[in-house]
Amino acid sequence: MATAPTATGASQSSHPYAPFTFEVPPVPMDEITDPLPAEQRETTKHQKQVEEELRENRVKARVEAAKSEGGFLNKCSAIGTDLVSKAEHASKATVAFQDEQTTKIAEEHAAKRFARACPSIASSDSVQADHKCRVINMAGPPYTVSGHLVITNGHVCFVGNTKMTIAVALADVVSVCQAVTLPTVSPHQPPCVLLLPRPDVIPTAIAVYARPERSLHVFAEVANCGDCLNVLDHCWRAVLGKVPVPGMTYAPPLGDVFTQALLGRPAGQATKRAVPGREAGAPQGPSVRKKSKSPPPAPGPAEDSGTPSVRRQSRSPQATHGSGGAKGQGPAPSVRRPSHGAGPKIAPA
């Protein structure tokens, strides 16, 4: 397995890192046209401010109408409505301020953590997103390492809790795909990774295909995976310019190709399916053809009996009707009488 490139000046981990390898990258995921999460937050903030202004205007109109009517009760109602409105406005402003401060502190902490892990990249790039995740390490066990997936305007990086650092330039990325991970029975095996099987499945992992040594980096259990994919797709397409990469051969977006790459099989090699109840490679026995059950033959006329035998003919649509039969019915049964010379001769008394 090839070792992923690490950032210059980053601290090395206690155990090496080895990504997956691939033969042919799959077709990248469709372009995400939604605004960036930061832009969405600003839009939501602006909408809340407009709604709050409209609400305050409606409250002011009610207060002025109550004051204009005069009377002690109307004045008390106007004062109470005004106080409640101001308290609600102050509460919403406090919550919005706390959310902004929490986001700001988290971004500052992520930037400091990334600067300590990758000082050379942090000096030229700015952090666009930071999400908790687990990277799959084929040099395990352990096969998953906890850390943070950091996306800058020029790199996709992983800063592990065990001082593991991975940095891949976005200019070297040839494909980005949504994926899901499934746990395996044995703890001595890496998780099962599958490309997104259907569009309505929520992705939980990100697969990044890079040119250096055809390395495949899989980031599993990504927190807010949709937002992370949004930022990564925008930054990657901004650096690359055109996606898919011109001149790059891509495989169809099938899970089989991805699974074969993970299992080390050549791309395009078919997988034999075992027949239930038969072991693979076991010799097959001779084929037995079952005979069709046919109705037993009709019994013939009694030869040694003097009683007349009656033979009934089967009704068929092509049978000709007898002269005495009714229309739509089969011919009347024929009675075969024994010949005069067939029976025993009786002498006169």
Automatic annotation (TrEMBL):
Chain residue ranges for the region called Disordered: 1-52, 268-349
Compositional bias ranges of the Basic and acidic residues kind: 39-52
Comp. bias regions, Polar residues: 1-15, 306-321
Name of this protein: GRAM domain-containing protein
Species in which this protein is naturally found: Eutreptiella gymnastica
